[in-house]
From TrEMBL:
This is DUF1573 domain-containing protein. The lineage of its organism: Bacteria, Bacillati, Bacillota, Bacilli, Bacillales.
Length: 132
């Protein structure tokens, strides 16, 4: 199954299943809530489970360094790996977030695949000038 078909199929499935929160206002607030739940699940992985840790510090960013070197030197500030339980919870919350993103696309008559393709095209075109 191609990735594009999978995204299209998922978006169609969301369209068929979204009934109770079909209002634009409901969808946008549920999208925001689901995003917060992803963040909360990640925070609980740190503060309750402890499977991952955040070790934040200033990033070394030499002006004359090559991009390939920066990728190696810049840190994610994460130590550890999500345990199976936390991974399942984070995936579930991300899935709900994707559900409401697809629902938002449906209400705005947008194709989620087109959104992904447009962003990918922009990344490909701008390359290193699109670093975030």
């Amino acid at each position: 199954m191609s990735e594009d078909y999978s995204v299209h199929s998922f978006q169609h499935q969301v369209s068929e299943l979204l009934l109770r929160h079909r209002s634009f206002l409901d969808v946008i607030s549920k999208f925001q809530e689901s995003n917060a739940r992803v963040n909360r699940a990640l925070m609980k992985s740190i503060t309750e489970c402890g499977c991952i840790k955040v070790q934040g510090e200033r990033q070394p960013f030499p002006q004359d360094a090559a991009i390939s070197l920066l990728k190696k030197r810049l840190k994610t500030h994460l130590d550890g790996k999500l345990c199976d339980n936390c991974l399942d919870i984070v995936k579930a919350e991300m899935g709900k977030n994707l559900f409401y993103l697809a629902a938002l696309c449906n209400l705005l008559e947008m194709n989620l695949s087109d959104v992904i393709d447009q962003e990918s095209s922009k990344l490909n075109t701008l390359g290193v000038f699109n670093l975030r």
